Amino acid sequence: MFPGDPLINLTGLVPQNDIQRDALIKQFKLDQSYPVQFYHYLQQLFLGNWGYSFISGQPLREEIGIAMPATFELSTYAMLVALVIGVPVGCYAGLKSYSATDYAINTASIFSYSFPVFWLALIFILVFSLEAGIAPLSGRISLLFEVPNVTGFILIDILLARDIDHALALKDAARHLVLPTLAIAMISTAAMIRITRRSVIDVMNSPFITAARSRGLSNRQIFMRHILRNALLATLPLMAIQVTTLITNAMIVETLFSWPGIGNWLINAINQRDYPALRIGVLAVSTMVITLTILIDIFNRLIDPSREKFERGTI
User: Fold this and answer.
1) Do the Cβ atoms of 236 and 299 come closer than 8 Å?
2) Which of 29, 57, 158, 179 has its CA 20 to 30 A from that of 194?
């Protein structure tokens, strides 16, 4: 369905003559029926033979292997920030429910959640990079440092690198990480605050909390033994929904900060009409989102087996 030659779109290879073209057609089974073609395509997909990029001429498997960890790194740091800030603040807002403090936190979270992530990233660039000059404008690390790509996580790769000043390189990489991470984390933190707050309020209104108070337990004991655990169990299923939003926001922010992740890579592929890269890039992102969502759901069921029983009972 893409414009152009299906053989070139599938393989990323441009045959130089009819002999090469016939050889590629036979290699990729394009002279066979559609079911045979699709079976061969799936077979090559699982073997890692994903074709070549129009622009760079490099195998797409290698390019995805470089771009995907960068996106996962940015999303991971943003999620950590959202958990470290959002869960405690959400718990505090829930414990102070319907008070002036709760209203202030709730208003701030709604205000923060309403920002478009691309606008927030542009404001950060304008204020902190262009005006104040306290944070780098783009990239993962200064060009002064030559860091081999081993794991794809820049901080880990710096520690594994040789013949560089590790302390200075880590400081430089952290400065590059701050703005894109905060731009993504602000929205995720706001969502985490609201989810945790609602969960804490629901747990506090449960009958077993009233029973715990009647036994003379202190507020701290009730919170640590009963409220916190049950509230966090209720928030975990909602985290699976946030994974999709988090990765989407990370891909948008990458294009603004020239972060070499899958989002920035896909935008370049769209602009240059690199159809093989588009096909594999979208497939890789979809696979990552689906895999993370399933893993979080499995983790939810392992730590809270009652969920499965409850869900079966309601079907």
Assistant:
1) yes
2) 179
CB distance 153 to 69 below 8 Å: yes
Give the end of a domain, one of 264, 286, 304.
264
Residue 309 within any structural domain of the chain: no
What angle do helix axes 262-271 and 275-303 make, rounded to 10 degrees? 150
Query: Could you tell me what percentage of the chain is helix, strand and coil, using 3-state DSSP and rounding each to the nearest 5?
Result: 75, 0, 25
Q: 109-136: per-residue pLDDT in tens? A: 999 888 889 899 999 999 998 898 888 8
117 and 226 belong to one structural domain: yes
pTM, to two decimals: 0.81
Give how far Cα 27 sits from Cα of 51, 73, 217, 303, Å.
Answer: 12, 37, 73, 48
**CA distance linking residue 129 with residue 222, whole number of Å:** 46
> pLDDT per residue over 255-283, tens digit each?
889 888 898 888 888 888 888 888 888 89
Q: Which domain holds residue 119?
A: 69-264
DSSP code, position 98: T
Task: Note whether 242 and 143 are same-domain residues.
Answer: yes
